[in-house]
Specification:
3 helices; about 35% helix; two-stranded antiparallel ribbon; four-stranded antiparallel sheet; alpha+beta; about 120 residues
Length: about 120
């Protein structure tokens, strides 16, 4: 990672963590999406946010459900994948995690490393 890539990666990771923190029974996809773009906006990067920050996972990987205001229920699984695309710098960063809504909050489903130090350690063997 270059210094700029690290800076942007950490912003995307922060946005994802904030988004996941909103997810619980009764919250909505809109709240999760807003948390991502609020984070990007704090860093002056909202215009580089690309698309929506996630989607439900159902019978299809990208479930077509887009009822942003429908309350989440225990058992729902969503993917949270904030994405920054800075074309002029040749940098695009997306971090994806599956999230299960539980009775009392959420559980991030098992996934590969995503902290910079972990990724670099894996790449170096």
């Amino acid at each position: 990672f270059s210094n700029r890539q690290k800076e942007l990666y950490n912003i995307v990771l922060e946005a994802q963590k904030r988004s996941i923190a909103t997810m619980r029974p009764g919250s909505t996809q809109l709240e999760a999406h807003k948390a991502v773009y609020d984070t990007f906006d704090e860093y002056g990067l909202a215009q580089y946010g690309y698309g929506t920050c996630g989607h439900p996972v159902g019978l299809n990987i990208h479930d077509a459900t887009r009822n942003w205001d429908q309350p989440l229920k225990p058992g729902c699984v969503l993917v949270i994948e904030p994405f920054l695309m800075l074309n002029e710098e040749g940098i695009g960063i997306r971090i994806e995690s599956g999230v299960l809504i539980t009775e009392d909050g959420n559980e991030v489903l098992p996934e590969p490393p995503k902290e910079i130090e972990e990724i670099e350690a894996v790449c170096q063997g």
